[in-house]
């Protein structure tokens, strides 16, 4: 409509390509600290993408995504440490574990019509139960944590996810890119449209021939499996897993804050949200340290106020606002 | 196989109770392939409940429903839609955040191999219902008459053999009603689509329906061609009399 030289779609492609190039080049430009922060942004973007498929597309609010993260992390790590089976294979077991857990949640939720907030409570209950279970599971280290061996001779076994910061950085980039790709493909598919219809009005969707239960299960499975892959990454990147950390409610909240701030249900919201919140959190820690304000909860308090500010300014997410501003989009999405 | 034409839809002794209230009481009727059939009756007569029974949204307490010779009561709404019965909602249920086109494409998805062909099918239906120019708008931004049209478009997109229309003319201006009547008649002829319509707008009923079934307090009180039914004393008393009063 406007006299702009390029359509919003083309501008979006160019913006995405530039952003991707910058991320590919980053390790050669920025220092280790900045690189580690970008890595966290990428992992956050990836996990946000997984959560967004369930909530943003299908309208199912999971408050316990840490469950799938933890199952993925423990699944692949245990196979590697206890049985010598590498994560290249373990990742499939990790996904299967998460899908199985999501099936139980889905079965309970859909079979007994546990909907809305009650479904969300169910997801919390499962994540918390897993935390308590793993806390007491001595074979996997219990509350004291489970550790992966870091041996110099393993270095370079990339198929076993044994590598340095560059390796893990590019792996995170691949995950974030892959997550965006999967999300975009699904959203454009028939299944993706069934999800959107269910999110908007499940009864109307059903009347149009959509098998609502089946589609909801698919969303759960995809989201759980993707999150489990993120868990495998975290286990082999950090080389330690603690039930109190990986299954923590705070972890579940972290996963969802990115897409909420970025724009629930949008493709780029999880990316924008993560690239906003992770540096914000880091900057806040630095600022409070510089000010000598290390009272417990100070970070959470300031962070909370900043979040409220962002959400009040862009209630449907930062990405839709940004896209309008930069003319990267013609309408919805 | 008998040579006598088999009804497309057969409702037999359908009964539905809500706690103490019998919303649909022992209702029976049959609709032939490509027939246009109207269900009328005063507010609260049980018309929408009857549709919910046919479409599988409510379970029957008594009776049976057959479609194309197969028993369908007890099946889920999506299975019933898949077999060829589409329905609209009296209180419209658009997908508000999605475009008009995607709303209809989601209906078309049922019989389309992919979204591109679903959108192509949607465009064709949007043209028939004068919504093509608004295809890019969010459904939330439509006016009520347009939402009614969208409701019809979305149901048609599932390529049904029978469509259940619940007061889709309500709120339309007379010219808009005539437009919708013409569009429905075209589709009925071109695609051998059977239509069961709940309608208070007698202008549309008289123009379209071959037969009319009248409900009152959940029970059937008359059935026949519109000219006959509108002369029936009980119908005039229970329903048309009320209408004439205002
Ligand atoms: N889900 C329900 N639960 C309880 N009662 C219901 C329910 N749905 C309908 N009813 C009752 O059943 C009766 C028939 O309602 P119904 O909606 O079928 O009437 P209708 O003929 O469609 O009326 P209108 O012309 O106003 O749309 C009413 O008394 C209504 O209150
Ligand atoms: Mg009604």
Characteristic terms for this protein:
heterodimer; A: 333 residues; mainly alpha; two-stranded antiparallel sheet; B: alpha/beta; Rossmann fold; 2 domains; six-stranded mixed sheet; four-stranded antiparallel sheet; 24% strand; binds adenosine-5'-triphosphate; binds magnesium ion
Give the SSE map.
The complex is a heterodimer of chains A (333) and B (246).
Chain A: H1 8-29, H2 32-57, H3 66-83, H4 87-111, H5 117-135, E1 146-147, H6 165-188, H7 190-200, H8 202-207, H9 212-238, E2 240-241, H10 243-246, H11 249-262, H12 269-290, H13 298-313, H14 318-325
Antiparallel strand pairs in A: 1-2
Helix pairs in contact in A: 2-6, 2-9, 2-11, 2-12, 3-4, 3-5, 3-9, 4-9, 6-7, 6-9, 7-9, 11-12, 12-13
Chain B: E1 9-18, E2 21-31, E3 36-40, H1 47-54, E4 62-67, E5 70-71, H2 77-82, E6 85-87, H3 100-108, H4 115-128, H5 144-157, E7 162-166, H6 174-191, E8 194-198, H7 202-208, E9 211-216, E10 219-224, H8 226-229, H9 233-245
Parallel strand pairs in B: 3-8, 3-9, 6-7, 7-8
Antiparallel strand pairs in B: 1-2, 1-4, 4-5, 9-10
Bound molecules: adenosine-5'-triphosphate and magnesium ion (MG).
Written account of the structure:
The complex is a heterodimer of chains A (333) and B (246). With 333 residues, chain A is mainly α. Chain A has a single domain (34-137, 146-326), classed as ABC transporter involved in vitamin B12 uptake, BtuC (Orthogonal Bundle), CATH 1.10.3470. Chain A has 14 helices and two strands; from the N terminus they run H-H-H-H-H-E-H-H-H-H-E-H-H-H-H-H. Chain A has helices at residues 8-29, 32-57, 66-83, 87-111, 117-135, 165-188, 190-200, 202-207, 212-238, 243-246, 249-262, 269-290, 298-313, 318-325, and strands at residues 146-147, 240-241. Chain B is of the alpha/beta class and 246 residues long. Helices cover 38% and strands 24% of the residues of chain B. Chain B contains nine helices and ten strands. The termini of chain B are far apart. The A-B interface holds A 188-190, 193-194, 196-197, 200-201, 203-212, 265, 331-332 and B 55, 57, 76-78, 81-82, 86-87, 89, 93-99, 102, 105-107, 109-110, 112, 114-115, 118, 136, 138, 154-155, 157-158. The complex binds adenosine-5'-triphosphate and magnesium ion. Adenosine-5'-triphosphate (ATP) binds next to strand 2 and helix 1 of chain B.
């Amino acid at each position: 409509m406007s006299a702009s030289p390029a359509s919003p779609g083309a501008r979006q492609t160019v913006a995405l390509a530039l952003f991707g190039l910058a991320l590919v080049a980053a390790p050669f430009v920025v220092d280790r600290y900045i690189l580690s922060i970008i890595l966290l942004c990428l992992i956050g973007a990836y996990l946000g993408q997984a959560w967004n498929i369930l909530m943003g597309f299908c309208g199912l609010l999971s408050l316990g995504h840490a469950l799938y993260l933890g199952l993925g992390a423990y699944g692949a790590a245990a196979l590697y440490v206890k049985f010598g089976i590498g994560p290249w294979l373990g990742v499939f077991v990790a996904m299967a574990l998460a899908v199985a857990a999501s099936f139980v949640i889905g079965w309970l939720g859909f079979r007994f019509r546990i909907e809305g907030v009650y479904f969300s409570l169910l997801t919390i209950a499962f994540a918390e139960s897993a935390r308590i279970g793993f806390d007491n599971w001595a074979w996997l280290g219990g509350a004291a944590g489970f550790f992966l061996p870091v041996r110099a001779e393993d270095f370079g076994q990339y198929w076993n996810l044994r590598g340095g910061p560059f390796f893990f950085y590019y792996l995170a980039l691949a995950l974030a890119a892959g997550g965006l790709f999967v999300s975009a493909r699904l959203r454009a598919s028939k299944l993706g449209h069934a999800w959107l219809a269910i999110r908007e009005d499940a009864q109307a969707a059903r009347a149009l021939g959509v098998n609502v239960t089946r589609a909801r299960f698919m969303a759960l499975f995809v989201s759980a499996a993707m999150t489990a892959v993120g868990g495998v990454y975290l286990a082999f990147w950090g080389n330690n897993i603690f039930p109190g950390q990986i299954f923590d409610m705070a972890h579940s909240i972290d996963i969802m804050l990115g897409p909420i701030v970025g724009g629930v249900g949008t493709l780029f919201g999880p990316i924008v949200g993560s690239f906003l919140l992770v540096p914000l959190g880091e900057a806040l820690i630095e600022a409070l340290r510089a000010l000598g304000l290390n009272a417990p909860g100070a970070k959470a308090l300031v962070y909370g106020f900043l979040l409220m500010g962002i959400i009040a300014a862009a209630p449907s997410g930062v990405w839709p606002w940004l896209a309008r501003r930069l003319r990267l989009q013609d309408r919805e999405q | 196989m008998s040579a006598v034409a088999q009804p497309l839809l057969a409702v037999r002794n359908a009964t539905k109770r809500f706690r103490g209230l019998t919303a649909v009481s022992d209702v029976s009727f049959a609709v032939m392939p490509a027939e246009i059939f109207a269900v009328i009756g005063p507010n609260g007569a049980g018309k929408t409940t009857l549709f919910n029974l046919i479409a599988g949204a409510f379970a029957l307490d008594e009776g049976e429903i057959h479609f194309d010779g197969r028993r369908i009561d007890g099946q889920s709404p999506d299975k019933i839609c898949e077999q060829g019965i589409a329905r609209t909602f009296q209180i419209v249920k658009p997908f508000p955040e999605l475009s008009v086109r995607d709303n209809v494409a989601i209906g078309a998805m049922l019989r389309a191999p992919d979204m591109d062909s679903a959108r192509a099918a949607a465009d064709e239906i949007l043209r028939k219902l004068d919504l093509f120019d608004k295809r890019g708008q969010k459904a939330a931004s439509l006016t009520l008459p347009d939402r009614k049209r969208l409701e019809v478009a979305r149901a048609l997109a599932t390529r049904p053999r029978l469509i259940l229309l619940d007061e889709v003319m309500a709120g339309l201006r007379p010219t808009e009603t005539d437009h919708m009547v013409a569009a429905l008649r075209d589709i009925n002829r071109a695609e051998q689509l059977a239509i069961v319509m709940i309608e208070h707008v007698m202008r549309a009923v008289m123009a379209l329906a071959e037969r009319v079934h009248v409900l009152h307090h959940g029970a059937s009180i008359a059935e026949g061609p519109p000219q006959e039914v509108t002369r029936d004393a009980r119908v005039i008393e229970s329903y048309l009399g009320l209408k004439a009063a205002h």
